[in-house]
């Protein structure tokens, strides 16, 4: 059964097309990732799916409920961790969770037990009586994760759940997410622009400028590049690229003085190649492709190339400050 | 239906919870009315003297000051909506399975409880000002203040539903509320001022809210003196087209205003999704 169905979804903000005719389905129990740079339309898609934003056209449903016509059923079925913090800083962690439980009508006999379990899971039980204001960024994030799960949602939306966290906290959050999926039979829809995180997903949609440019499992996406990635540094990059083209019919890309190309089996290709190569080589490296390479190949730009725009920077600062 | 009631109580609960945590709001809605009571009361009382036997200027404006306290507190309760939007918490509320009407009503009810409390704190000044309070008066005051507060909370929420910054909200609310308060007969009897002012004041719905509360405080005394002297009283009971409004009629005017504002606020919340 498809937990999320999106069909030809379009959302414009004035002149800007934030989401450009996208379609995809998410299976039950799957971790589905949206991978894309700033401004790709990830948050806009989530906002539409969680009923906070109306699409310009197209259809979407969550757990079979239409996001336009059956909002209330959709809202009951989903849990959310938004990109920006949405906790009440002036209340304690426990008060925040209680509010959530009341708002979702969690029955009294499950409420306290569930709150206790989740606070234990995200390791905030000892700090439950503290005002959220006094929490660190990572603790807030964990609390939001716990809150998103409080009402036993079947679909969990995570919008950049680890944004602005250090590697250790990021791994922590991922441990919880993976544990939870096992325990609660969750379907997870998440967005990220960290490649390594995207690897945790069962399937990934690569989104750029509001369009889905590829959708598959991480392994298949990487295989689609055609084998291993070879990066070499030569005295004369142009000459090296030309020689690759003429002798092996391989097209390569030159970035920062490095020549990059893909070959089906890098390990056996290289020895022969180096023996016969005319240009002087300074270094050679073979590796399995990463999602970065896939992204570069599909969109023509690296996901991290883009400068963190000012909006994003402000957002981060705000998160730190609070 | 369930989502309506849950929305009401959950949001009202939070409004109260937040109020307890945040003491500055408590003080800010007293400051202005107290200032006016002191400046006008102490400043003008001797110059103006008794408006009618037994009713000096302080006694005249005191019910208006109570109304003003409740008005200010109610309108500014909308600030928390803007605050929640700025700090993201509004999203948590809007994705929850709560009806929009419930959210707006809950907000208004929470704010009404708070405003009622603040109005009652102002009652503590009565003995100092020489105003005698009876139990009946206090009990009758409760529904009046609640209706007044619900209506004006509607105004605050309506403005807040359109505002992205707290400063913006404060500026807009002050632009709306100060003319409304000054022209509502808190400081003068609307039946006895130049015609243009009288017309403006009688169009202002707040006038009826102020009048209802003043009738409650002064009605009895004034009826007695006017019976004794044969002088009709112009101090209470707004006269519209020759008809003098009773307390109930005053309250109906305020309630209608409140219903319109509240509907507009709910509509505005629906729209912004
Ligand atoms: N409320 C809005 N009004 C106008 N434009 C908007 C609005 N929300 C988003 N946009 C625009 O839509 C586009 C997609 O934004 P969106 O927030 O969905 O990107 P994103 O993929 O989540 O990016 P990020 O990684 O920075 O979070 C951007 O160009 C953005 O400027
Ligand atoms: Mg985003």
Structure in words:
The complex is a heterodimer of chains A (322) and B (273). Chain A has 322 residues and is of the alpha/beta class. Chain A has helices spanning 42-49, 71-77, 93-103, 108-121, 137-149, 167-184, 195-198, 218-223, 237-248, 266-276, 291-299, 310-321; strands at residues 2-13, 16-27, 31-35, 57-62, 65-66, 78-81, 155-159, 187-192, 203-208, 211-216, 228-234, 253-255, 258-263, 281-287. In chain A, α4 (108-121) packs antiparallel against α5 (137-149). Residues 305-309 of chain A have low confidence and may be disordered. In chain A, a hairpin with a 2-residue loop joins β1 (2-13) and β2. Chain B has 273 residues and is mostly helical. Helix content of chain B is 77%, strand content 3%. Chain B has helices at residues 2-21, 23-48, 57-76, 79-86, 89-95, 100-123, 126-129, 135-160, 166-182, 195-203, 206-229, 247-271; strands at residues 50-52, 55-56, 239-240, 243-244. A two-stranded antiparallel sheet of chain B has the order 1-2. The longest helix of chain B is centred in the first third of the chain and has 26 residues, at 23-48. Chain B starts with a helix and ends with a helix. Chain A binds chain B through residues 50-54, 72, 75-76, 78, 80, 82, 84-91, 95, 99-100, 102-105, 147, 322, and chain B through 2-3, 6, 9-10, 13-14, 17-18, 21-22, 84, 87-89, 91-98, 273. Bound molecules: adenosine-5'-triphosphate and magnesium ion (MG). Residues 13, 16, 18, 36, 38-44, 83, 193, 312 of chain A line the site of adenosine-5'-triphosphate (ATP).
């Amino acid at each position: 059964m498809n937990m999320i169905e999106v069909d030809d979804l379009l959302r414009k903000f004035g002149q800007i097309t934030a989401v450009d005719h996208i379609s995809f389905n998410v299976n039950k129990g799957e971790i589905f990732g949206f991978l894309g740079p700033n401004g790709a339309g990830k948050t806009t898609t989530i906002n539409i799916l969680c009923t906070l934003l109306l699409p310009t056209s197209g259809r979407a449903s969550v757990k079979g409920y239409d996001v336009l016509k059956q909002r209330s059923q959709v809202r009951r079925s989903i849990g959310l961790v938004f990109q920006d913090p949405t906790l009440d800083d002036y209340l304690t962690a426990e008060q925040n969770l209680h509010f959530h439980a009341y708002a979702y009508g969690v029955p009294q006999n499950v409420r306290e037990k569930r709150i206790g379990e989740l606070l234990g899971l995200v390791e905030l039980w000892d700090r439950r009586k503290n005002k959220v204001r006094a929490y660190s960024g990572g603790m807030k994030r964990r609390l939001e994760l716990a809150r998103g799960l409080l009402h036993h949602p079947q679909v969990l939306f995570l919008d950049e759940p680890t944004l602005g966290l250090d590697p250790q906290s990021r791994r922590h959050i991922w441990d919880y997410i993976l544990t939870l999926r096992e325990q609660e039979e969750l379907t997870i829809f998440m967005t990220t622009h960290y490649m390594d995180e995207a690897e945790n997903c069962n399937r990934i949609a690569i989104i750029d400028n509001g369009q889905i440019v590829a959708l598959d499992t991480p392994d298949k996406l990487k295989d689609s590049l055609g084998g291993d990635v070879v990066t070499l540094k030569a005295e004369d990059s142009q000459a090296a690229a030309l020689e690759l083209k003429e002798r092996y019919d391989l097209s390569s890309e030159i970035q920062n003085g490095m020549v990059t190309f893909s070959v089906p089996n890098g390990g056996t290709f290289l020895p022969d190649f180096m023996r016969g190569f005319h240009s002087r080589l300074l270094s050679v490296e073979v590796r399995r492709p990463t999602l970065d390479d896939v992204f570069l190949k599909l969109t023509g730009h690296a996901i991290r190339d883009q400068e963190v725009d000012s909006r994003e920077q402000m957002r981060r600062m705000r998160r730190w400050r609070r | 239906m369930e989502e309506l009631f849950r929305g009401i109580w959950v949001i009202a609960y939070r409004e109260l919870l937040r109020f307890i945590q945040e003491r500055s709001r408590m003080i800010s809605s007293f400051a202005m009315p107290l200032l006016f009571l002191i400046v006008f009361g102490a400043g003008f009382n001797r110059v103006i003297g008794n408006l009618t036997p037994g009713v000096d200027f302080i006694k005249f404006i005191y019910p208006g000051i109570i109304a003003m306290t409740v008005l200010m507190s109610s309108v500014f309760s909308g600030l928390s909506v803007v605050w929640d939007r700025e700090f993201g918490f509004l999203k948590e509320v809007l994705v929850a399975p709560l009806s929009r009407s419930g959210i707006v009503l809950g907000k208004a009810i929470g704010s009404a409880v708070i405003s009622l409390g603040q109005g009652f704190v102002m009652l503590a000044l009565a003995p100092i000002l020489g105003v005698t309070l009876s139990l009946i008066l206090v009990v009758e005051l409760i529904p009046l203040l609640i209706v007044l507060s619900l209506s004006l909370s509607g105004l605050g929420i309506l403005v807040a539903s359109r505002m992205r910054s707290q400063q913006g909200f404060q500026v807009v609310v002050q632009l709306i509320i100060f003319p409304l308060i000054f022209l509502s007969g808190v400081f003068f009897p609307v039946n006895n001022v130049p015609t243009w002012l009288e017309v403006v004041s009688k169009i202002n719905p707040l006038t009826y809210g102020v009048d209802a509360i003043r009738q409650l405080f002064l009605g009895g005394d004034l009826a007695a003196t006017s019976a004794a002297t044969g002088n009709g009283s112009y101090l209470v009971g707004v006269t519209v087209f020759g008809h003098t409004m009773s307390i109930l009629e005053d309250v109906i005017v305020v309630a209608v205003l409140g219903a319109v504002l509240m509907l507009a606020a709910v509509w505005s919340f629906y729209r912004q999704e």
